[in-house]
Amino acid sequence: MITNSAPSAIKTPYTVNLAQGDPEEKREEIRRYFHETYDAYEALFEPLLEKVAYRTRADALRHPLIFYYGHTATFFMNKLVLAKLVDRINPSFESIFAIGVDEMSWDDLNESHYEWPDPDDVREYRNKVRDCIDNLITTLPITLPIGWESPFWPIMMGIEHERIHLETSSVLIRQLPLKLLDANHPTWQVCDRDNPTVSNELIEVPGATVKLGKSRDDAYYGWDNEYGSYSKDIETFSASKYLVSNKEYLEFIEDDGYTTRDYWTDEGWNWVTYEKASCPRFWLPQEDGSYKFRTMLKEIDMPWSWPAETNYLEAKAFCNWKAAKTRQPVRLPTEEEWYRLLDYSELPDAPEWGKAPGNINLEGPASSVPVDTHEFEHGFHDIVGNVWQHTETPIRGYAGFEIHPLYDDFSTPTFDTKHNIIKGGSWISTGNELMRDSRYAFRRHFYQHAGFRYIVSDAPVEIPDDSWETDPEVVPYCEFNYGKEYFGVSNYPERIAQICLDLATKRTRGTALALGCKTGRSAFELAAGYEQVTGIDFSARMIRIGVQMKDKGYTQYTLPEEGEIVSFHQANLQELGLDGARGKVDFMQGDLANLKSIYSGYDLILLDTLLERSYNPEKFLESVHERLNKGGLLVIASTYDWQKSVTEQENWLGGFKVDGENVTTRDTIEKLLSANFEQLGEGKDVEYVLRKTARTFDHNVVEVTAWEKK
Amino acid sequence: MITNSAPSAIKTPYTVNLAQGDPEEKREEIRRYFHETYDAYEALFEPLLEKVAYRTRADALRHPLIFYYGHTATFFMNKLVLAKLVDRINPSFESIFAIGVDEMSWDDLNESHYEWPDPDDVREYRNKVRDCIDNLITTLPITLPIGWESPFWPIMMGIEHERIHLETSSVLIRQLPLKLLDANHPTWQVCDRDNPTVSNELIEVPGATVKLGKSRDDAYYGWDNEYGSYSKDIETFSASKYLVSNKEYLEFIEDDGYTTRDYWTDEGWNWVTYEKASCPRFWLPQEDGSYKFRTMLKEIDMPWSWPAETNYLEAKAFCNWKAAKTRQPVRLPTEEEWYRLLDYSELPDAPEWGKAPGNINLEGPASSVPVDTHEFEHGFHDIVGNVWQHTETPIRGYAGFEIHPLYDDFSTPTFDTKHNIIKGGSWISTGNELMRDSRYAFRRHFYQHAGFRYIVSDAPVEIPDDSWETDPEVVPYCEFNYGKEYFGVSNYPERIAQICLDLATKRTRGTALALGCKTGRSAFELAAGYEQVTGIDFSARMIRIGVQMKDKGYTQYTLPEEGEIVSFHQANLQELGLDGARGKVDFMQGDLANLKSIYSGYDLILLDTLLERSYNPEKFLESVHERLNKGGLLVIASTYDWQKSVTEQENWLGGFKVDGENVTTRDTIEKLLSANFEQLGEGKDVEYVLRKTARTFDHNVVEVTAWEKK
């Protein structure tokens, strides 16, 4: 030990109710919660015996512990500076300890890039930060409820952030060489029991609807990814009574689990071959073929009744092996299925626990306990606690997801389909981690104090393929179609569709074609009046968003704010009242100048800001009557903004002189259509605004003309 | 003659009062005016003896007469089609006869490009057009006053257009071979007098202010270039009593005028050497050294007492010769000086004449008369009439110039500084050409029935160098600074300047620096509160507009409407109430990243949407306090819209992450300025709209922050 203080007794109160109570008492409650969290994190580092322990990398792809020791204090400072509540204490430390939490590339970890400070200096820095925050808690104005906008929110953010690192740093310490650690530190003693192994069995969980997502006015601190709403009907399934124990997992290993390609996903097989893994990371194979087991601070005999701790890839391979052996659809639960199990267990949310219902919140030993220790309703064990439980579900935002402005990269980098959700918490999970709504996700090859429960279900697992759309050509049209209004100009595709629907009153409204549909909004809107709508755009990248909307009901995209800073947005058909249109809309890629003849027989064709973006618009107009039913409508919206880079000048419909007189696009449209169409009413101007950055926009005015086929 | 009708007696009523009278009587008056104009134009072609006369080019660079014969009818049709009042009568003719009035390039005139119709067919077409317009005059609704928007306006436009061609075609006929013409046609007989020559003398014209430009509610038809307002103080000058006679001009010729380089402008010398000219075009040098003279239809003995008919270049060379000989500042009058002479003569406007006050309106012979025939007030002769009088002034629009939408290229192609104004009218000038406000201009080497009067004046001639700004980078900023408002967003540079002026209340307001001033408006606006303002922009092309505004008080520019169709705009400091600022503002080209140290000692520096367009903005901000006086203001407006193409990313002030946290431009500005400045108040959003085409705009929102130097 490098400090002489006595070992700490860790206190782990529940996270603070931010809505109810006396403000000044709340101030003191937050102060206690802050100090006890800070204390707990300090206590975690007490077993590090030498300064070298701080500088030694526990994981080849992660920073040494010194980084994490400084990081939680620096995080407080960086968020509070961002919130303009404090000035910097140590700009150098606050740069060194700012980033690098996650796995890094080899190059980033080149030692020569880092000059790690002395742990004593970092401890001194941490103390200064502690004083600073304590002072802030004293002086900041406080009103309840404390919401996203409150100056206390970044303080809660820093506390809960430190609680996450309390857990993740304990995983790193579990990978440090034993000689650097005080195995006998009294605060971190492991469970001394290893029960006779129990054989696992399946218990039915009746189907029901689960509702997920936290309300904006929830009384407790939450990370951005918890808010919003999502509901899902869960079919009846069966789930294993216990988490998979080391003993149960051994069967998989002994049945050539780690060498049988078929059990592994592609990603899993890549991992297992790259790592040359033959068992979970914390199993220590001995020369005689037996195993020892690594806890946070020491090596012990293999505790066969404890839960198997694996990464997702190993858990998934186990399930596939089990499915092959049992010929049953064995797999991990999805996020929603895990919640169904939680709901079924009728466990109240953490603040009502009084006492931990399982091996969680540091109320037990500093390790797992046998899987049959903590029983919940219906015979299940370890609904929460002991180790985290892997799920099949890559994390994403719920409908209504928004990012807290002080921490815009907490969740979004993980919304990449590569980070799977873990649920239930471990023996060292505290604070927000205990809460029903909390959601944490890690890369599938990462280790936490995590194992798994398997289920048997015929329900397919829908893996959302929803990374964030970042294509700079496409994202402005995501916002344009599904996002906010700017300068008081209402949603353009909605208005264009409404013009069509108004014109279509008392007409046949069978099929409609939306040409130039971009990311699809106009097609969904037209479905309110037409039986079937086809949206066509030249750009497959645009169409992809429409298809996502149709298939999944939502899409996610980033928008440029300033320079390379982006914001994150989610659009959702349900919120727009368009969910019912999903079955009536199709999207196809197509070229106006060469549109297939199958696109015929329509009651409406909407040609939306497309003429002026086609390399040869005349051909289409000359024959468009052949694509419409008698009495059918043609609605043309155009800025008449011809660009030589898009349309060779000889193919422009207007914007030039003939015989000395100006010929406008409108003139030519009238000329081309007059033989087969009657014009309905006058041209009508409709504005639209296309957001480019937070402060720059295109603001255009289309003319809309409507034509009835004779 | 190719028709058998009797020679016409030409009637030349004054142009119609469009504001007063009974509407139905007005309808009949317009009908008479139309037919009498159409008749007069037909009569002009009566002396053409053979069809070949129609197809023979009078001028090598002009179409043959057949084009002009058809053109005036086609003009009616094209304008009325554009006004959606009629359908086409003969689309082929209406294309053939549409364009090519002016001098053309050799290539355009390649005969193989043209298949000229038979004159009889054209006559038949003209008759159909006559019937069509007569019918239109009968059926169109009529209300008085008849203004720009009235359907009778394009009818008046067609009539006055034909009256112009009555004159210009007579000049072309004057260049046809004599054998193709009936020299004895009774309608077109020349003056048979040649007085003894008088010697010219100078008469003083006292200085006064002249006010030019026609009011929008004037009762008479006007071309676009006549409207607007312009006033000028004219110094006392002397003007020649008579127009320069052939006899007086002969002195110049005999004094080696055509071979002495010094008398000619560069353009004049180019012309005289290219044309190998040795005398005016209608002088016919004989082998014996004497001259004959060409009238419209025949050759006569040299009428020495008639006015010399020259182009501008010859008139100017004569003046220069005269100046050299007399050592007096002899030159042509400017447009304004000509008007001063007209005002001094107290001649009423044409509709009040009763009888022509000179050889004009076809009330005399079909030629000039001796220069001492028609005397006006103060002893001057030919104030109007006989021949047009060249002026020094290239034509341009007055303040408030607007283009009639049905004829957008009547004037603007001549606003190129290459077309000089002629004044006063000739023997064949009629209709609008008689009116005080009418303004016609031709290229300086063109011949009309035009001569000149010289003046002696010390006043310099200001030749406006004001073609239309068409630079696609610059014209949006002309409109942005001096043009209309769009989407209800008020003028941006005016508001930015007002923010500065509001902040400057009760502060020292000596000198101000407007950085990123674009085309200059903000600098002019700041001059309302500061003694001296310097506007700086990186682009010399932008600055040029500001300099024009300062020097001349106005600028002209085209704006893209749709495709290659443009509209024409004039901006005028007087109209904007900023004329008084001209003496307080300077413009310089400068680079923010490398701004000279002389730009120091300011009480205000405005940095307007420039940081984000500089390749290295930090250096300036670091030292800007050195350029300000104590207590001086720094006002920064920015969209924070960094583009890699403009600013290398390493030089951005914000829009990136440092140590994992977003750094905004605003953060960096605060950091860079905090040592030397106090921020005044909060950032303030200000919108601006930049017009790109009639239907496409940039709509941005800058943040404005203000800083006081400590």
UniProtKB/TrEMBL annotation, chains A, B:
GO terms for molecular function: formylglycine-generating oxidase activity. Pathway: Amino-acid biosynthesis; ergothioneine biosynthesis. Residues 34-168 form the DinB-like domain. CDD domains: AdoMet_MTases (cd02440). SUPFAM superfamilies: C-type lectin-like, S-adenosyl-L-methionine-dependent methyltransferases. Pfam families: DinB_2, FGE-sulfatase, Methyltransf_31. Keywords: Iron, Oxidoreductase. This is 5-histidylcysteine sulfoxide synthase. It comes from the Bacteria. It comes from Pelagicoccus enzymogenes. Residues 201-455 form the Sulfatase-modifying factor enzyme-like domain. InterPro entries: CTDL_fold, DinB-like, Methyltranfer_dom, OvoA_Cterm, OvoA_Nterm, SAM-dependent_MTases_sf, Sulfatase_Mod_Factor_Kinase, SUMF_dom. Residues 512-645 form the Methyltransferase domain. Transmembrane segments: none annotated.
